[in-house]
């Protein structure tokens, strides 16, 4: 849940053109807007093979050979990868980490920390706030940062392997690494490590043979293998680990290796807990039909595709992006749909009191923000993720029309 | 008795080690698990309906290329594999599983040409896929095909391309392209783009110029596009062909979710055939999606759109005549033969049809994962596709010097055929010709 305290919630609108960067640039890349709507950033090409970060129209003083994958995190920090003299650095709010790497990618942030996947001298690992793992590995992927930002995990290749050494691979050359230390048995594959809410434990999917999948928690495998599993999640109340498992061609839910939802779903994934310990997930009760399910009770409405789930802060409501059989997008919420269908919809956002829900929608050539199924009476070339005020009464709209940036604080009642 | 006519065993570490680990009990249990849990009535109907009329035989390039040897006919391959597994209820020995694997993985391209010739509509390709599924579950798969499936599982691409190598390849191609198009970008992780462009593993590994060319075409056409910086970029799927459907599902999930995460309106796939089948026909359905969850467009359709709307114009047409190779999975599987001919007619001076053509075209013998079975089976492909060589030679005799094939596997297979049979033909992707001959309004003048 985004903390919106301290943001400017004065009703009204502000328009800015930020034209300074344009005057000193050959081109500007896509806009990125901070969560509070106060900063607009993009990469500026200032000369051939020269790039600078542009924030609110001001070019950064430092010029790099490349800048890629800029983004604002939930804390409003602007992070990106920058390249200089054949090395890659992490850029955070105008500063670059001291140490450069052969390559860096997959930026993550949590708890005020910024982490990245790193390749250094063809060895792989992670770095947090500029501190590299003590051990690097033959390969690494599926990188993960803990909720408090202090710990990291990844799937790592521990043993080297020659070309087409299929039996060595099947004997296991991959492992889970936590904070740079490989833990648990060597297995064929490790997927989707995830930390517990207190950042103390880590669970992941493991593949132990061509046909056997299971869940490992802190390196210890569940005693049962399944013919498929999806990413696990921790129950914040009990600490139990829950994962979708495939049995006899159907999907159910296992908790600490005990089946709690019988395998009756054509598909079941993206499970998540509420603070109270209830479970929401995406499921397919019958082939080709997808919906949301809470505590093993699917909604009655369905669509061809359902994803980008948002659960309200009180855990009682959920919303998701649904793609209909007509290939148009709708917001699925409270076991019904908002009116209207769109070319694209972004993940819905709930207000702090759980009473309101907003979503960014694309009508083809224009975009707008909807709240509770009602559109804001104005369309823009592009919108960014909306946010609610702490008292849930106002909506922050961040948008672009041509080269003009628009920040609007609107009352929920303005959506009609 | 059942392997009496099987006198063409090829040594392969994957197949041999696989059967060395088998017991009759494991075979019986696994075979019956697949039959009872995965195949249902479909297999039984196909199997029981076949009247052995033999009309499928001449549809198969292996049969035709082996002087009408019935053991290479589709029905013949069924009778040497799944018929026996069904009749004997899985009570067969390891040697028989070797035979099944070799036939299903290396003597059938799953091209489904035979389906067009079966008066009863039997899908022999499906039955060969079931044989492969059984062999996968028994751990009996060709070494090199299994290696690509392992690569998929470890890296989410078929070429062991590491996460950093992928993005590095894109940046390298972008840098190269800026000599020609000073403001060209390969936009990474752009949110809300109209087009998410995906490729197959060999492109960043061996054929990076194709990424350059695609970037140039998309740039010139003014398309709002992106490519992902994270896994999901590889649309290919050798796990589908090894019979590892669980991995097929995992691959398709990350591919589609990668596009969903970036809120792209459609996925445009590079010139590949099998990947197209995986995303629109098999991988998506294994996951429970009846349709694909994000709009999917093949390059053939996309190029046709760019040309029809005038977003790409040709400065000059490629000198002809050329001939067209119709890839199985996008032509028989998707029906893009008219779009393909439209594109070729727009970019080439003239073309001469290969005979037979369109949905009746002979396969390249590389598809279906056969080329991925590697060096041990190269001669299987060469000997098994004299029919393709004859088609190509006939086109060459009419003046054709260039073959257009909008599929990676077809390129691999046809290159080998052209060399083996000394046909002296050039091979092109559509993108090769469009890039080289389009009007480049955004390029620096030479």
Automatic annotation (TrEMBL), chain A:
Q: Which NCBIfam families match?
A: TmcD_fam
- Record's protein name: WD40 repeat domain-containing protein
UniProtKB/TrEMBL annotation, chain B:
InterPro entries from the xrefs? 4Fe4S_Fe-S-bd, 4Fe4S_Fe_S_CS, Cys_rich_dom, Helical_ferredxn
Query: Is Plastid found in the keyword set?
Result: no
Q: Which domain of life is it from?
A: Bacteria
Single GO MF descriptor: 4 iron, 4 sulfur cluster binding
Which residue intervals define the domain 4Fe-4S ferredoxin-type in the entry?
A: 41-70
Organism expressing this protein natively: Pseudodesulfovibrio senegalensis
Q: PANTHER family under this entry?
A: FUMARATE REDUCTASE IRON-SULFUR SUBUNIT, HETERODISULFIDE REDUCTASE
The alphabetical list of record keywords is: 4Fe-4S, Electron transport, Iron, Iron-sulfur, Metal-binding, Transport
What name has this protein been given in UniProt? Answer: (Fe-S)-binding protein
Q: According to its UniProt record, what is one Pfam family this protein matches? A: Fer4_8
């Amino acid at each position: 849940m985004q903390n919106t305290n301290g943001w400017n919630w004065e009703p009204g609108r502000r328009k800015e053109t930020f034209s300074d960067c344009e005057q000193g640039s050959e081109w500007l890349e896509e806009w990125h807007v901070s969560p509070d709507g106060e900063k607009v950033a993009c990469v500026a090409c200032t000369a051939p093979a020269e790039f600078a970060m542009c924030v609110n129209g001001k070019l950064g003083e430092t010029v790099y050979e490349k800048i890629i994958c800029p983004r604002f995190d939930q804390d409003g920090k602007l992070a990106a990868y920058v390249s200089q003299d054949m090395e890659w650095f992490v850029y955070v709010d105008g500063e670059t980490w001291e140490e450069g790497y052969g390559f860096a990618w997959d930026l993550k942030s949590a708890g005020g920390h910024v982490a990245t996947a790193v390749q250094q001298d063809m060895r792989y690992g992670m770095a947090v706030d500029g501190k590299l793992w003590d051990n690097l590995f033959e390969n690494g992927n599926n990188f993960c940062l803990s909720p408090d930002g202090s710990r990291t995990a990844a799937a790592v290749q521990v043993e080297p392997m020659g070309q087409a050494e299929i039996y060595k691979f099947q004997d296991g050359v991959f492992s889970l690494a936590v904070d740079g230390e490989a833990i648990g048995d060597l297995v064929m594959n490790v997927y989707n490590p995830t930390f517990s809410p207190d950042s103390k434990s880590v669970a992941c999917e493991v593949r132990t043979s061509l046909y056997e999948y299971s869940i490992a928690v802190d390196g210890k495998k569940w005693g049962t293998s399944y013919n498929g599993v999806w990413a696990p999640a921790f129950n914040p109340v009990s600490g139990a680990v829950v994962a979708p498992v495939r049995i006899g061609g159907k999907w159910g839910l296992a908790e600490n290796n005990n089946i709690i939802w019988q395998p009756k779903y054509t598909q079941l994934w993206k499970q998540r807990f509420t603070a109270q310990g209830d479970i929401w997930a995406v499921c397919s009760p019958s082939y080709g039909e997808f919906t949301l399910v809470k505590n093993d009770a699917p909604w009655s409405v369905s669509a061809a595709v359902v994803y980008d789930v948002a659960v309200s802060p009180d855990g009682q409501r959920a919303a998701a992006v649904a793609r209909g059989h007509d290939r148009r997008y709708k917001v699925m919420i409270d076991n019904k749909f908002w009116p209207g269908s769109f070319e694209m919809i972004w993940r819905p956002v709930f207000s702090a009191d759980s009473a309101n829900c907003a979503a960014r929608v694309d009508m083809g050539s224009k975009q707008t923000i909807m709240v509770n199924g009602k559109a804001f009476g104005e369309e823009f070339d592009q919108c960014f993720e909306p946010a609610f005020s702490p008292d849930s009464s106002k909506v922050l709209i961040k948008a672009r029309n041509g080269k003009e940036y628009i920040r609007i604080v609107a009352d929920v009642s303005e959506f009609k | 008795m059942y392997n009496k006519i099987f006198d063409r065993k090829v040594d392969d570490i994957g197949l041999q080690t696989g059967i060395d680990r088998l017991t009759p009990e494991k075979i019986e249990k696994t075979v019956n698990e697949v039959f009872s849990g995965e195949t249902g009535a479909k297999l039984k109907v196909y199997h029981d309906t076949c009247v052995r009329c033999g009309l499928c035989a001449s549809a198969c390039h292996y049969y035709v290329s082996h002087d009408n040897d019935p053991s290479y006919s589709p029905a013949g391959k069924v009778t040497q594999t799944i018929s026996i597994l069904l009749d004997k209820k899985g009570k067969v020995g390891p040697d028989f599983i070797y035979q099944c694997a070799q036939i299903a993985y290396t003597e059938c391209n799953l091209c489904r040409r035979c389906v067009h010739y079966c008066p009863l509509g039997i899908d022999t390709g499906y039955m060969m896929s079931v044989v492969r599924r059984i062999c996968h579950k028994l751990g009996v798969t060709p070494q090199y095909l299994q290696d690509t499936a392992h690569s998929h599982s470890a890296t989410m691409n078929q070429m062991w391309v590491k996460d950093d190598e992928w993005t590095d390849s894109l940046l390298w191609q972008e840098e190269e392209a800026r000599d020609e198009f000073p403001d060209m970008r390969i936009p990474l992780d752009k949110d809300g783009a109209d087009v998410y462009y995906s490729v197959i593993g060999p492109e960043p590994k061996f054929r990076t110029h194709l990424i350059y060319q695609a970037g140039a075409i998309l740039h010139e056409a003014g398309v709002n596009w992106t490519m992902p910086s994270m896994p999901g970029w590889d649309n290919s799927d050798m796990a589908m062909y090894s019979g590892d459907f669980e991995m097929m599902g995992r691959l398709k999930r990350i591919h589609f979710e990668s596009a969903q995460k970036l809120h792209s309106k459609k996925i445009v796939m590079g010139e590949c055939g099998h990947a197209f089948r995986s995303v629109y026909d098999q991988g998506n359905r294994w996951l429970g999606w009846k349709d694909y969850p994000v709009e999917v467009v093949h390059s053939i359709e996309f190029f046709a759109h760019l040309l029809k709307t005038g977003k790409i114009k040709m400065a000059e047409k490629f000198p002809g005549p050329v001939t067209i190779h119709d890839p199985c999975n996008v032509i028989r599987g998707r029906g893009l033969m008219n779009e393909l001919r439209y594109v070729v007619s727009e970019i080439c001076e003239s073309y001469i049809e290969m005979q037979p053509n369109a949905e009746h075209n002979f396969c390249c013998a590389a598809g279906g994962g056969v080329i991925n079975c590697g060096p041990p089976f190269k001669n299987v492909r060469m000997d098994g596709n004299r029919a393709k060589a004859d088609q190509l030679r006939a086109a060459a005799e009419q003046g054709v010097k260039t073959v257009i094939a909008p599929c990676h596997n077809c390129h691999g297979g046809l290159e080998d055929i052209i060399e083996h049979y000394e046909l002296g033909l050039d091979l092109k992707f559509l993108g090769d010709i469009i890039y080289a001959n389009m009007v480049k309004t955004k390029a620096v003048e030479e």
